[in-house]
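Thread: Newbie trying to understand structure tokens

Hi all, I'm a second-year student working on a class project, and my supervisor (Dr. K.) asked me to get a predicted structure for one chain before our next meeting. I've only ever worked with sequences, so writing a 3D structure as a token string is new to me. If someone could post the tokens and maybe explain what I'm looking at, I'd be very grateful. Here's the chain:
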Amino acid sequence: METALAEDLSHAPVFVRRPGGEIVYWTQGARELYGYTPKQAIGHSSHDLLRTEFPRSLHEIDTELERNGSWDGLLRHCRQDGRHIWTESRWRRRRDTEGRGLFVVETNTDVSDREHLSRELDHRVKNLLAVVQGLAHLTLRTDEPDKVDRFEARLAALASANDILLRLHWSGASLKEVE
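---
Reply by user tm_fold:
Sure, no problem. This is what the structure looks like when written as tokens:
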């Protein structure tokens, strides 16, 4: 059973690294995703090899990994051919019997297409809001500046709420954040 499981996992983009980042195991799936052979990857820092861009400081992520035993997030990596990709990354810390962190198992799924589409949608929404604001300004040309100011403030608030949602990748925001 362990052999079958290892065979199944070999096709997934998975690698194992020491807590400091040194790669000790590299699957065929990782080779297919990143372009590096095991010989090229093993012994190198995963963060340096893949030129990883983190959503926040690596220290903060490592602290969460140490505290919870796992971390999930969106990373930007660079393949061997120089192409940048977005990955949903899952890190799991493996410990020895005395509780020391021995290895980190890192699984990465290429979500580049989804990220590019999301960013395109975000861009189009911003453009649409700019058009609405322009039309509203033309429509409300009046001698009542207070009315125009209030309406423009509402449009600015709508644009601000959109910016907050974009920053959170449309995963949701509290009402307090968008007020």
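A couple of things are worth pointing out once you decode it. Residues 2-110 form a domain with the Beta-Lactamase fold (CATH 3.30.450.20). The chain has a mean pLDDT of 82. Feel free to ask follow-ups in this thread.
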